[in-house]
Write a structure and sequence with these properties.
The complex is a heterodimer of chains A (329) and B (242). Chain A has 329 residues and is an alpha+beta fold. Helix content of chain A is 29%, strand content 21%. Chain A folds into three domains: 59 residues, Uridine Diphospho-n-acetylenolpyruvylglucosamine Reductase, domain 2; 116 residues, Uridine Diphospho-n-acetylenolpyruvylglucosamine Reductase, domain 3; 100 residues, Enolase-like, domain 1 (2-Layer Sandwich). The longest helix of chain A is centred in the C-terminal third of the chain and has 14 residues. The N and C termini of chain A lie far apart (54 Å). In chain A, 53% of the residues are buried. About 17% of the residues of chain B have low confidence. In chain B, helix 6 packs across helix 9. Chain B has nine helices and five strands. The chains are: A alpha+beta (329), B alpha+beta (242). The interface between A and B is large, with 46 and 33 residues.
Chain lengths: 329, 242
Protein backbone atom coordinates (compact mmCIF):
# COMPACT_ATOMS: atom_id res chain seq x y z
CA UNK A 1 0.00 0.00 0.00
CA UNK A 2 2.29 2.71 -1.21
CA UNK A 3 -0.28 4.93 -2.94
CA UNK A 4 -1.12 7.07 0.05
CA UNK A 5 0.97 8.38 2.87
CA UNK A 6 -0.09 7.98 6.47
CA UNK A 7 -2.20 10.79 7.90
CA UNK A 8 0.00 13.46 9.44
CA UNK A 9 -0.31 17.07 10.51
CA UNK A 10 1.48 19.44 8.18
CA UNK A 11 2.97 22.59 9.66
CA UNK A 12 4.15 25.46 7.50
CA UNK A 13 6.12 27.77 9.82
CA UNK A 14 6.55 31.38 8.75
CA UNK A 15 9.99 31.78 10.30
CA UNK A 16 12.94 29.79 11.57
CA UNK A 17 11.87 30.49 15.18
CA UNK A 18 8.42 29.05 14.53
CA UNK A 19 10.01 25.99 12.95
CA UNK A 20 12.31 25.55 15.96
CA UNK A 21 9.33 25.85 18.31
CA UNK A 22 7.40 23.22 16.38
CA UNK A 23 10.36 20.85 16.47
CA UNK A 24 10.74 21.39 20.20
CA UNK A 25 7.04 20.79 20.80
CA UNK A 26 6.85 17.57 18.81
CA UNK A 27 10.31 16.18 19.62
CA UNK A 28 10.87 12.75 18.13
CA UNK A 29 7.50 12.91 16.33
CA UNK A 30 8.61 15.80 14.16
CA UNK A 31 10.03 15.46 10.65
CA UNK A 32 11.43 18.24 8.49
CA UNK A 33 10.69 18.35 4.77
CA UNK A 34 11.65 20.88 2.12
CA UNK A 35 11.67 19.22 -1.32
CA UNK A 36 10.42 15.98 0.25
CA UNK A 37 12.07 13.76 -2.36
CA UNK A 38 13.61 11.51 0.31
CA UNK A 39 10.86 11.87 2.92
CA UNK A 40 7.80 11.01 0.86
CA UNK A 41 9.24 7.65 -0.21
CA UNK A 42 9.70 6.78 3.46
CA UNK A 43 6.12 7.88 4.18
CA UNK A 44 4.61 6.00 1.25
CA UNK A 45 6.36 2.82 2.33
CA UNK A 46 5.13 3.43 5.91
CA UNK A 47 8.58 2.72 7.30
CA UNK A 48 8.61 6.18 8.87
CA UNK A 49 5.37 7.64 10.17
CA UNK A 50 6.04 10.95 11.91
CA UNK A 51 2.95 12.69 13.23
CA UNK A 52 4.13 16.25 12.70
CA UNK A 53 5.66 17.16 9.36
CA UNK A 54 7.26 20.61 9.28
CA UNK A 55 7.62 22.08 5.79
CA UNK A 56 10.52 24.55 5.80
CA UNK A 57 10.65 24.72 1.99
CA UNK A 58 8.92 28.11 1.94
CA UNK A 59 11.21 29.88 4.41
CA UNK A 60 12.78 32.73 2.46
CA UNK A 61 15.54 33.18 5.04
CA UNK A 62 16.83 29.71 4.17
CA UNK A 63 16.75 30.29 0.42
CA UNK A 64 19.25 31.67 -2.05
CA UNK A 65 22.96 31.94 -2.82
CA UNK A 66 24.71 34.99 -1.40
CA UNK A 67 28.23 36.38 -1.35
CA UNK A 68 29.01 37.22 2.29
CA UNK A 69 32.55 38.47 1.74
CA UNK A 70 34.41 35.80 3.70
CA UNK A 71 32.38 33.00 2.15
CA UNK A 72 29.52 32.15 -0.18
CA UNK A 73 26.39 31.08 1.70
CA UNK A 74 23.97 28.64 0.08
CA UNK A 75 20.63 28.53 1.91
CA UNK A 76 19.54 25.00 2.82
CA UNK A 77 16.32 25.18 0.78
CA UNK A 78 18.08 26.38 -2.39
CA UNK A 79 17.17 23.92 -5.11
CA UNK A 80 19.80 21.97 -7.00
CA UNK A 81 18.70 23.60 -10.27
CA UNK A 82 19.31 27.01 -8.75
CA UNK A 83 22.79 25.89 -7.73
CA UNK A 84 23.48 24.45 -11.15
CA UNK A 85 22.47 27.72 -12.81
CA UNK A 86 24.13 30.03 -10.30
CA UNK A 87 26.70 32.24 -12.03
CA UNK A 88 28.38 32.98 -8.72
CA UNK A 89 29.00 29.29 -8.01
CA UNK A 90 29.75 28.45 -11.61
CA UNK A 91 32.45 31.11 -11.82
CA UNK A 92 34.25 30.22 -8.58
CA UNK A 93 33.31 26.63 -7.69
CA UNK A 94 32.47 24.73 -10.89
CA UNK A 95 33.00 21.42 -9.08
CA UNK A 96 29.87 22.13 -7.06
CA UNK A 97 27.68 23.18 -9.99
CA UNK A 98 28.81 20.09 -11.91
CA UNK A 99 27.91 17.89 -8.95
CA UNK A 100 24.50 19.54 -8.54
CA UNK A 101 23.83 19.12 -12.26
CA UNK A 102 24.29 15.34 -12.03
CA UNK A 103 21.85 14.66 -9.22
CA UNK A 104 18.82 12.53 -10.14
CA UNK A 105 16.58 14.02 -12.85
CA UNK A 106 15.63 17.58 -13.93
CA UNK A 107 12.28 17.51 -12.10
CA UNK A 108 13.93 16.25 -8.92
CA UNK A 109 16.62 18.93 -9.16
CA UNK A 110 13.85 21.54 -9.59
CA UNK A 111 12.32 20.55 -6.24
CA UNK A 112 15.16 18.89 -4.34
CA UNK A 113 17.27 21.10 -2.11
CA UNK A 114 20.95 21.18 -1.19
CA UNK A 115 19.98 20.65 2.46
CA UNK A 116 18.06 17.54 1.53
CA UNK A 117 20.76 16.26 -0.79
CA UNK A 118 23.38 16.27 1.96
CA UNK A 119 21.00 15.10 4.71
CA UNK A 120 19.21 12.29 2.86
CA UNK A 121 19.27 8.81 4.28
CA UNK A 122 21.27 6.02 2.71
CA UNK A 123 19.89 4.08 -0.24
CA UNK A 124 20.80 0.58 0.97
CA UNK A 125 17.91 -1.42 -0.49
CA UNK A 126 17.62 -3.67 2.55
CA UNK A 127 17.34 -0.71 4.90
CA UNK A 128 14.94 1.10 2.57
CA UNK A 129 12.75 -1.99 2.22
CA UNK A 130 12.18 -2.00 5.95
CA UNK A 131 14.48 -4.82 7.04
CA UNK A 132 15.17 -4.61 10.80
CA UNK A 133 18.88 -4.01 10.26
CA UNK A 134 21.40 -2.30 12.55
CA UNK A 135 20.61 1.07 11.02
CA UNK A 136 16.90 0.53 11.62
CA UNK A 137 17.53 -0.36 15.25
CA UNK A 138 17.81 -4.14 14.81
CA UNK A 139 20.77 -6.46 15.27
CA UNK A 140 21.76 -7.77 11.84
CA UNK A 141 23.05 -6.53 8.50
CA UNK A 142 21.17 -8.03 5.60
CA UNK A 143 23.46 -6.51 2.95
CA UNK A 144 26.64 -8.17 4.18
CA UNK A 145 25.73 -11.86 4.00
CA UNK A 146 27.00 -14.50 1.55
CA UNK A 147 23.95 -14.20 -0.70
CA UNK A 148 23.10 -10.52 -0.31
CA UNK A 149 23.09 -8.20 -3.30
CA UNK A 150 25.65 -5.65 -2.25
CA UNK A 151 27.20 -4.29 -5.43
CA UNK A 152 26.26 -0.75 -4.37
CA UNK A 153 27.71 -1.03 -0.88
CA UNK A 154 30.83 0.07 0.94
CA UNK A 155 34.53 -0.60 0.45
CA UNK A 156 35.77 1.35 3.45
CA UNK A 157 34.80 2.22 7.01
CA UNK A 158 32.52 -0.75 7.55
CA UNK A 159 31.31 -1.12 11.10
CA UNK A 160 28.42 -3.59 11.09
CA UNK A 161 26.61 -1.41 8.51
CA UNK A 162 27.86 -1.42 4.88
CA UNK A 163 25.67 1.43 3.56
CA UNK A 164 27.21 4.28 1.55
CA UNK A 165 26.57 8.00 1.19
CA UNK A 166 24.26 8.58 -1.81
CA UNK A 167 24.90 12.30 -2.25
CA UNK A 168 26.61 13.80 -5.30
CA UNK A 169 27.12 17.24 -3.79
CA UNK A 170 28.62 15.92 -0.54
CA UNK A 171 32.05 14.97 -2.00
CA UNK A 172 32.21 18.35 -3.74
CA UNK A 173 31.43 20.14 -0.47
CA UNK A 174 34.02 18.10 1.42
CA UNK A 175 36.63 18.89 -1.25
CA UNK A 176 35.78 22.60 -1.00
CA UNK A 177 36.09 22.59 2.83
CA UNK A 178 32.49 23.74 3.17
CA UNK A 179 30.90 24.34 6.55
CA UNK A 180 27.36 23.48 7.58
CA UNK A 181 25.43 25.95 9.73
CA UNK A 182 22.94 24.24 12.03
CA UNK A 183 20.27 25.98 14.06
CA UNK A 184 18.97 24.60 17.33
CA UNK A 185 16.43 26.65 19.28
CA UNK A 186 17.67 29.82 17.67
CA UNK A 187 21.38 29.18 18.38
CA UNK A 188 23.60 28.65 15.37
CA UNK A 189 26.57 26.34 15.31
CA UNK A 190 29.01 25.61 12.51
CA UNK A 191 30.22 22.13 11.63
CA UNK A 192 32.92 21.37 9.03
CA UNK A 193 31.49 19.30 6.21
CA UNK A 194 33.81 16.38 7.02
CA UNK A 195 32.36 16.18 10.53
CA UNK A 196 28.79 16.77 9.35
CA UNK A 197 28.62 13.26 7.93
CA UNK A 198 28.91 10.48 10.51
CA UNK A 199 29.77 6.84 9.94
CA UNK A 200 28.28 3.75 11.58
CA UNK A 201 31.12 3.63 14.12
CA UNK A 202 29.90 6.99 15.47
CA UNK A 203 26.15 6.44 15.22
CA UNK A 204 24.73 3.63 13.17
CA UNK A 205 21.19 5.04 13.00
CA UNK A 206 21.94 8.33 11.27
CA UNK A 207 24.04 9.70 8.43
CA UNK A 208 24.65 13.25 9.70
CA UNK A 209 25.22 15.05 13.00
CA UNK A 210 21.64 16.36 12.86
CA UNK A 211 19.56 15.35 15.87
CA UNK A 212 15.88 15.91 16.60
CA UNK A 213 15.40 19.66 16.85
CA UNK A 214 18.31 20.58 14.59
CA UNK A 215 17.71 22.45 11.32
CA UNK A 216 20.39 22.73 8.64
CA UNK A 217 20.26 26.43 7.78
CA UNK A 218 22.96 27.01 5.21
CA UNK A 219 26.11 25.69 3.62
CA UNK A 220 29.10 28.03 3.62
CA UNK A 221 31.80 27.74 1.00
CA UNK A 222 35.02 29.54 1.98
CA UNK A 223 36.99 31.31 -0.75
CA UNK A 224 39.95 28.96 -0.16
CA UNK A 225 39.42 26.98 -3.37
CA UNK A 226 37.82 29.66 -5.51
CA UNK A 227 39.11 29.52 -9.06
CA UNK A 228 41.11 26.33 -8.39
CA UNK A 229 41.38 23.55 -10.96
CA UNK A 230 38.53 21.14 -10.42
CA UNK A 231 37.17 17.82 -11.59
CA UNK A 232 33.90 16.01 -10.90
CA UNK A 233 32.81 12.69 -12.30
CA UNK A 234 29.95 10.41 -11.40
CA UNK A 235 29.59 6.80 -12.49
CA UNK A 236 26.13 5.31 -12.15
CA UNK A 237 24.24 2.48 -13.80
CA UNK A 238 22.09 4.97 -15.67
CA UNK A 239 22.55 8.62 -16.52
CA UNK A 240 19.35 9.90 -14.95
CA UNK A 241 17.79 9.27 -11.50
CA UNK A 242 20.44 6.85 -10.38
CA UNK A 243 22.67 7.28 -7.38
CA UNK A 244 26.41 7.15 -7.90
CA UNK A 245 28.22 3.83 -7.74
CA UNK A 246 31.29 6.00 -7.22
CA UNK A 247 31.72 9.72 -7.70
CA UNK A 248 34.83 11.83 -7.30
CA UNK A 249 35.41 15.52 -6.67
CA UNK A 250 38.84 17.12 -6.92
CA UNK A 251 40.03 20.68 -6.42
CA UNK A 252 43.69 21.56 -6.88
CA UNK A 253 45.99 24.53 -7.17
CA UNK A 254 48.77 24.15 -9.68
CA UNK A 255 51.90 26.18 -10.35
CA UNK A 256 53.88 25.50 -13.53
CA UNK A 257 52.46 22.01 -13.98
CA UNK A 258 53.24 21.24 -10.34
CA UNK A 259 50.46 20.50 -7.84
CA UNK A 260 50.71 23.01 -4.99
CA UNK A 261 47.70 21.78 -3.04
CA UNK A 262 44.81 19.40 -3.63
CA UNK A 263 41.73 17.94 -2.00
CA UNK A 264 39.97 14.85 -3.33
CA UNK A 265 36.80 13.24 -2.03
CA UNK A 266 34.92 10.16 -3.16
CA UNK A 267 31.27 9.28 -2.67
CA UNK A 268 29.62 5.87 -2.82
CA UNK A 269 32.48 3.94 -1.23
CA UNK A 270 31.91 4.60 2.47
CA UNK A 271 29.12 5.79 4.75
CA UNK A 272 30.60 9.28 4.62
CA UNK A 273 32.29 11.07 1.70
CA UNK A 274 35.81 9.63 1.76
CA UNK A 275 38.76 11.96 1.47
CA UNK A 276 41.56 10.31 -0.48
CA UNK A 277 44.23 11.65 1.86
CA UNK A 278 46.96 9.31 0.58
CA UNK A 279 46.42 10.58 -2.95
CA UNK A 280 46.39 14.19 -1.77
CA UNK A 281 49.69 13.70 0.07
CA UNK A 282 51.16 11.93 -2.91
CA UNK A 283 50.35 14.56 -5.52
CA UNK A 284 51.32 17.63 -3.51
CA UNK A 285 54.52 19.13 -4.91
CA UNK A 286 54.69 16.65 -7.77
CA UNK A 287 54.69 17.33 -11.48
CA UNK A 288 51.54 16.29 -13.26
CA UNK A 289 52.04 13.53 -15.79
CA UNK A 290 51.59 9.84 -16.55
CA UNK A 291 53.92 8.81 -13.69
CA UNK A 292 51.92 10.68 -11.11
CA UNK A 293 48.75 9.28 -12.57
CA UNK A 294 50.04 5.72 -12.16
CA UNK A 295 51.16 6.34 -8.60
CA UNK A 296 47.85 7.99 -7.65
CA UNK A 297 45.99 5.06 -9.13
CA UNK A 298 48.08 2.65 -7.08
CA UNK A 299 47.27 4.24 -3.70
CA UNK A 300 43.71 5.42 -4.36
CA UNK A 301 41.90 2.31 -3.14
CA UNK A 302 44.48 1.16 -0.60
CA UNK A 303 42.76 -0.45 2.37
CA UNK A 304 39.59 -1.24 0.48
CA UNK A 305 37.79 -4.43 1.51
CA UNK A 306 35.33 -5.60 -1.09
CA UNK A 307 32.08 -7.37 -0.27
CA UNK A 308 30.74 -10.21 -2.41
CA UNK A 309 29.53 -8.17 -5.37
CA UNK A 310 31.28 -4.82 -5.23
CA UNK A 311 34.85 -5.70 -6.19
CA UNK A 312 34.35 -3.66 -9.35
CA UNK A 313 34.36 -0.52 -7.25
CA UNK A 314 38.07 -0.91 -6.44
CA UNK A 315 39.33 -0.42 -10.03
CA UNK A 316 36.57 2.16 -10.45
CA UNK A 317 37.94 4.29 -7.61
CA UNK A 318 41.49 3.83 -8.95
CA UNK A 319 40.58 4.77 -12.49
CA UNK A 320 38.45 7.73 -11.47
CA UNK A 321 41.38 8.99 -9.41
CA UNK A 322 43.72 8.59 -12.36
CA UNK A 323 41.33 10.53 -14.56
CA UNK A 324 40.99 13.27 -11.96
CA UNK A 325 44.77 13.62 -11.69
CA UNK A 326 45.08 13.56 -15.49
CA UNK A 327 42.67 16.48 -15.73
CA UNK A 328 45.30 18.66 -14.04
CA UNK A 329 47.73 18.24 -16.92
CA UNK B 1 30.71 13.25 -22.20
CA UNK B 2 28.69 11.02 -24.50
CA UNK B 3 31.10 11.15 -27.44
CA UNK B 4 33.93 9.32 -25.64
CA UNK B 5 31.65 6.89 -23.81
CA UNK B 6 33.37 3.65 -24.97
CA UNK B 7 36.80 5.10 -24.15
CA UNK B 8 35.54 6.20 -20.73
CA UNK B 9 34.07 2.77 -20.04
CA UNK B 10 37.37 1.11 -20.98
CA UNK B 11 39.35 3.44 -18.75
CA UNK B 12 37.06 3.02 -15.79
CA UNK B 13 37.11 -0.75 -16.12
CA UNK B 14 33.36 -1.01 -16.46
CA UNK B 15 31.75 -3.25 -19.09
CA UNK B 16 31.19 -1.50 -22.36
CA UNK B 17 27.60 -0.80 -23.29
CA UNK B 18 26.37 -1.12 -26.84
CA UNK B 19 26.61 2.23 -28.63
CA UNK B 20 23.72 4.51 -27.74
CA UNK B 21 21.82 5.33 -30.95
CA UNK B 22 20.79 8.58 -29.29
CA UNK B 23 24.40 9.78 -29.57
CA UNK B 24 24.17 10.01 -33.34
CA UNK B 25 20.85 11.76 -33.24
CA UNK B 26 20.63 14.75 -35.49
CA UNK B 27 17.32 16.42 -36.03
CA UNK B 28 16.23 16.79 -39.61
CA UNK B 29 12.80 18.33 -40.10
CA UNK B 30 10.43 15.58 -41.16
CA UNK B 31 9.27 15.97 -44.74
CA UNK B 32 6.10 13.94 -44.32
CA UNK B 33 2.90 15.77 -43.58
CA UNK B 34 0.87 13.17 -41.78
CA UNK B 35 -2.20 15.25 -41.30
CA UNK B 36 -2.26 16.53 -44.88
CA UNK B 37 -2.01 13.13 -46.57
CA UNK B 38 -4.93 11.63 -44.72
CA UNK B 39 -8.59 12.41 -45.23
CA UNK B 40 -10.08 14.65 -42.58
CA UNK B 41 -11.37 12.55 -39.69
CA UNK B 42 -15.10 12.84 -39.01
CA UNK B 43 -15.83 15.65 -36.61
CA UNK B 44 -16.86 14.35 -33.22
CA UNK B 45 -18.15 16.82 -30.70
CA UNK B 46 -16.05 15.92 -27.68
CA UNK B 47 -17.12 19.07 -25.91
CA UNK B 48 -20.55 17.75 -24.97
CA UNK B 49 -19.24 14.71 -23.15
CA UNK B 50 -16.29 16.48 -21.52
CA UNK B 51 -18.35 19.37 -20.23
CA UNK B 52 -20.94 17.07 -18.73
CA UNK B 53 -18.19 15.02 -17.09
CA UNK B 54 -16.68 18.19 -15.74
CA UNK B 55 -20.05 19.26 -14.37
CA UNK B 56 -20.44 15.86 -12.75
CA UNK B 57 -17.03 16.06 -11.13
CA UNK B 58 -17.67 19.57 -9.93
CA UNK B 59 -20.75 18.22 -8.21
CA UNK B 60 -18.67 15.50 -6.55
CA UNK B 61 -16.04 17.96 -5.36
CA UNK B 62 -18.65 20.34 -3.96
CA UNK B 63 -20.46 17.60 -2.07
CA UNK B 64 -17.14 16.54 -0.58
CA UNK B 65 -16.63 20.07 0.66
CA UNK B 66 -20.09 20.09 2.18
CA UNK B 67 -19.48 16.86 4.06
CA UNK B 68 -16.16 18.01 5.46
CA UNK B 69 -17.61 21.41 6.34
CA UNK B 70 -20.43 19.83 8.30
CA UNK B 71 -17.92 17.59 10.04
CA UNK B 72 -16.60 20.66 11.81
CA UNK B 73 -19.92 20.99 13.63
CA UNK B 74 -19.26 17.77 15.50
CA UNK B 75 -15.63 18.28 16.38
CA UNK B 76 -14.27 20.12 19.38
CA UNK B 77 -12.79 23.47 18.45
CA UNK B 78 -9.11 23.64 19.34
CA UNK B 79 -8.25 26.02 22.14
CA UNK B 80 -6.75 29.40 21.36
CA UNK B 81 -3.32 28.36 22.62
CA UNK B 82 -3.30 25.28 20.40
CA UNK B 83 -4.57 27.29 17.45
CA UNK B 84 -1.31 29.24 17.31
CA UNK B 85 0.66 26.16 16.25
CA UNK B 86 -2.04 24.32 14.35
CA UNK B 87 -1.27 22.49 11.13
CA UNK B 88 -2.50 23.61 7.72
CA UNK B 89 -6.21 24.00 6.95
CA UNK B 90 -7.65 21.35 4.68
CA UNK B 91 -9.75 23.72 2.60
CA UNK B 92 -7.45 25.53 0.21
CA UNK B 93 -7.56 27.42 -3.06
CA UNK B 94 -5.39 26.08 -5.84
CA UNK B 95 -4.49 27.99 -8.96
CA UNK B 96 -4.78 25.32 -11.65
CA UNK B 97 -4.55 26.21 -15.35
CA UNK B 98 -5.36 29.82 -14.57
CA UNK B 99 -8.50 29.02 -12.57
CA UNK B 100 -8.89 29.27 -8.80
CA UNK B 101 -10.30 25.99 -7.50
CA UNK B 102 -11.45 25.55 -3.91
CA UNK B 103 -10.66 22.04 -2.79
CA UNK B 104 -10.58 20.00 0.41
CA UNK B 105 -7.18 18.33 0.70
CA UNK B 106 -5.73 16.27 3.57
CA UNK B 107 -2.19 17.38 4.48
CA UNK B 108 -0.68 14.09 3.35
CA UNK B 109 -2.20 14.14 -0.14
CA UNK B 110 0.06 14.48 -3.15
CA UNK B 111 -0.58 17.00 -5.90
CA UNK B 112 -1.09 14.19 -8.44
CA UNK B 113 -3.88 12.70 -6.33
CA UNK B 114 -5.57 16.07 -5.89
CA UNK B 115 -5.32 16.90 -9.59
CA UNK B 116 -6.69 13.55 -10.73
CA UNK B 117 -9.13 12.47 -8.06
CA UNK B 118 -10.44 15.73 -6.61
CA UNK B 119 -10.22 18.10 -9.57
CA UNK B 120 -10.93 15.47 -12.23
CA UNK B 121 -8.01 16.52 -14.43
CA UNK B 122 -7.02 13.01 -15.40
CA UNK B 123 -4.59 14.07 -18.12
CA UNK B 124 -1.84 13.95 -15.50
CA UNK B 125 -0.86 10.30 -15.09
CA UNK B 126 0.52 8.47 -12.08
CA UNK B 127 3.11 5.94 -13.22
CA UNK B 128 5.54 4.94 -10.50
CA UNK B 129 4.29 7.33 -7.79
CA UNK B 130 7.92 7.60 -6.60
CA UNK B 131 9.48 10.39 -8.67
CA UNK B 132 11.10 7.85 -10.98
CA UNK B 133 9.14 7.96 -14.25
CA UNK B 134 7.91 11.48 -15.04
CA UNK B 135 4.34 10.66 -16.13
CA UNK B 136 3.00 12.99 -13.42
CA UNK B 137 5.06 16.02 -14.49
CA UNK B 138 3.24 19.36 -14.10
CA UNK B 139 4.48 22.93 -14.08
CA UNK B 140 4.55 24.92 -10.83
CA UNK B 141 5.24 28.56 -11.74
CA UNK B 142 6.52 27.26 -15.10
CA UNK B 143 9.00 24.86 -13.44
CA UNK B 144 8.50 21.13 -14.19
CA UNK B 145 8.03 19.05 -11.02
CA UNK B 146 6.84 15.54 -10.21
CA UNK B 147 3.31 16.00 -8.85
CA UNK B 148 3.34 12.48 -7.34
CA UNK B 149 6.08 13.50 -4.93
CA UNK B 150 4.88 16.96 -4.00
CA UNK B 151 2.28 17.65 -1.33
CA UNK B 152 -0.65 19.69 -2.61
CA UNK B 153 -0.18 22.02 0.35
CA UNK B 154 3.40 22.71 -0.77
CA UNK B 155 2.25 24.40 -3.99
CA UNK B 156 -0.34 26.75 -2.51
CA UNK B 157 0.18 30.15 -4.07
CA UNK B 158 1.91 28.70 -7.13
CA UNK B 159 0.38 28.64 -10.60
CA UNK B 160 -0.02 24.98 -11.56
CA UNK B 161 -0.25 24.04 -15.23
CA UNK B 162 -1.32 20.55 -16.24
CA UNK B 163 -1.54 19.10 -19.73
CA UNK B 164 -5.16 20.29 -19.89
CA UNK B 165 -3.97 23.87 -19.56
CA UNK B 166 -1.39 24.13 -22.35
CA UNK B 167 -3.72 24.30 -25.37
CA UNK B 168 -5.48 27.52 -26.30
CA UNK B 169 -9.01 28.00 -24.89
CA UNK B 170 -10.41 27.55 -28.42
CA UNK B 171 -8.83 24.10 -28.68
CA UNK B 172 -5.78 25.05 -30.78
CA UNK B 173 -2.99 22.76 -29.67
CA UNK B 174 0.19 24.07 -28.10
CA UNK B 175 3.12 23.98 -30.57
CA UNK B 176 4.65 21.16 -28.51
CA UNK B 177 1.47 19.09 -28.70
CA UNK B 178 1.16 19.68 -32.44
CA UNK B 179 4.83 18.86 -32.99
CA UNK B 180 4.50 15.62 -31.00
CA UNK B 181 1.63 14.62 -33.27
CA UNK B 182 3.57 15.59 -36.41
CA UNK B 183 6.62 13.63 -35.26
CA UNK B 184 4.49 10.64 -34.15
CA UNK B 185 5.63 11.00 -30.54
CA UNK B 186 2.96 9.09 -28.60
CA UNK B 187 2.67 5.34 -29.09
CA UNK B 188 0.76 4.07 -26.05
CA UNK B 189 0.59 7.68 -24.91
CA UNK B 190 0.83 7.13 -21.17
CA UNK B 191 4.02 9.16 -20.77
CA UNK B 192 2.92 11.83 -23.25
CA UNK B 193 1.33 14.32 -20.82
CA UNK B 194 4.54 14.29 -18.80
CA UNK B 195 6.70 14.65 -21.91
CA UNK B 196 4.52 17.57 -23.05
CA UNK B 197 4.89 19.33 -19.70
CA UNK B 198 8.67 18.85 -19.61
CA UNK B 199 8.95 20.16 -23.16
CA UNK B 200 6.66 23.13 -22.48
CA UNK B 201 8.69 23.91 -19.34
CA UNK B 202 11.92 23.78 -21.35
CA UNK B 203 10.64 26.06 -24.11
CA UNK B 204 9.34 28.60 -21.58
CA UNK B 205 12.80 28.83 -20.09
CA UNK B 206 14.82 28.37 -23.25
CA UNK B 207 12.85 29.00 -26.48
CA UNK B 208 15.71 27.84 -28.73
CA UNK B 209 17.31 24.78 -27.11
CA UNK B 210 20.05 22.68 -28.67
CA UNK B 211 19.41 18.96 -29.15
CA UNK B 212 21.55 18.21 -26.09
CA UNK B 213 19.66 20.69 -23.93
CA UNK B 214 16.36 19.23 -25.08
CA UNK B 215 17.53 15.68 -24.40
CA UNK B 216 18.66 16.69 -20.94
CA UNK B 217 15.38 18.51 -20.21
CA UNK B 218 13.38 15.42 -21.18
CA UNK B 219 15.71 13.01 -19.35
CA UNK B 220 13.38 12.95 -16.36
CA UNK B 221 10.58 11.29 -18.35
CA UNK B 222 10.57 7.58 -19.10
CA UNK B 223 8.87 6.20 -22.23
CA UNK B 224 8.44 2.44 -22.23
CA UNK B 225 7.60 2.44 -25.94
CA UNK B 226 11.05 3.93 -26.45
CA UNK B 227 9.84 6.84 -28.58
CA UNK B 228 12.52 9.15 -27.21
CA UNK B 229 13.74 10.18 -30.67
CA UNK B 230 10.24 11.11 -31.72
CA UNK B 231 9.73 13.27 -28.66
CA UNK B 232 13.14 14.84 -29.12
CA UNK B 233 12.34 15.61 -32.75
CA UNK B 234 9.02 17.02 -31.58
CA UNK B 235 10.72 19.41 -29.18
CA UNK B 236 13.12 20.60 -31.88
CA UNK B 237 10.21 21.09 -34.28
CA UNK B 238 8.20 22.98 -31.67
CA UNK B 239 11.19 25.15 -30.74
CA UNK B 240 10.85 26.90 -34.07
CA UNK B 241 7.19 27.70 -33.43
CA UNK B 242 6.69 28.20 -29.70
Amino acid sequence: MTDYMHAFDLYVPASLEDAARLLEEHGENAWIVAGGKDSFDWFKDRHKQPQAVVDIGGLQELHGIRDHGSHIAIGATTTLTEMEESELLGEHFPVLTQAAAQVASPQIRNAGTIGGNVSQDTRCTYYRDGFPCYRAGGNACYANTPTAMNREHALFGVSRCVAVTPSDTAPALVALEAEMVISRNGTLRTVPSEEYFVGPDTDITRMTVLEAGDILVEVRIPWTWAGARSYFEKVADRQTWDFALVNIALVAKTEDNRVADARIACGGVQCTPRRLIEVEDLVKGETVGPDLETLAKRVAARGARALNYNQFKIPLVENLTARAVRSLA
Amino acid sequence: MSEDAPKRAAELGIPEFPPDPADDFEWVPATRQVAGDLPEPPLIDWRTTSSSRRAFLRGVVCSGVAVSASAHLFTVRPSEARAAVRGVERLITLNINGKARRVDVPPSETLAQTIRYRLGLTGTKIGCNRAECGACTVLADDVPIYSCSTLTHQVRGKAITTVEGVAEPDGTLHPVQQAFIDELGPQCGFCTPGQVMSAVGLLKKNPAPTVDQARRALSGNLCRCGAYHHYLAGVMRAAGRA
